[in-house]
Amino acid sequence: MTEKTKPEIEFYEGDEPTELVIIDIEEGTGESAAPGATVDVHYLGVDFASGEEFDSSWSRGQSINFPLAQLISGWQQGIPGMKVGGRRQLIVPPALAYGPAGSGHQLSGRTLIFVIDLLGTR
């Protein structure tokens, strides 16, 4: 497998979606992530409206490893079925991210785009 680099976000054509949008950029060939799995990922997150990056494991120089159950609903729904070695884009509406505007999180009310590289699953 070739070493991936920090992804560039492809701008989504169309209106801000109200449902989770899953786009496979690159199909993996390894084990599939199961619902509730612990995953090792590299990811980039940007705001849908502004295109501004708000978080990136790439910027920290290391992947992160965590149980899907501890993540936003968009990730819990969007990562299962993804195969190790794959790269997937998720467009996550507020209801599946940090809730409606005023919910107390700095990203509440925002539609978010993530590009996720699945490095491992268990």
Automatic annotation (TrEMBL):
<dbReference type="InterPro" id="IPR046357">
    <property type="entry name" value="PPIase_dom_sf"/>
</dbReference>
<dbReference type="GO" id="GO:0003755">
    <property type="term" value="F:peptidyl-prolyl cis-trans isomerase activity"/>
</dbReference>
<protein>
    <recommendedName>
        <fullName>Peptidyl-prolyl cis-trans isomerase</fullName>
        <ecNumber>5.2.1.8</ecNumber>
    </recommendedName>
</protein>
<comment type="similarity">
    <text>Belongs to the FKBP-type PPIase family.</text>
</comment>
<keyword id="KW-0413">Isomerase</keyword>
<keyword id="KW-0697">Rotamase</keyword>
<dbReference type="Pfam" id="PF00254">
    <property type="entry name" value="FKBP_C"/>
</dbReference>
<feature type="domain" description="PPIase FKBP-type">
    <location>
        <begin position="36"/>
        <end position="122"/>
    </location>
</feature>
<dbReference type="InterPro" id="IPR001179">
    <property type="entry name" value="PPIase_FKBP_dom"/>
</dbReference>
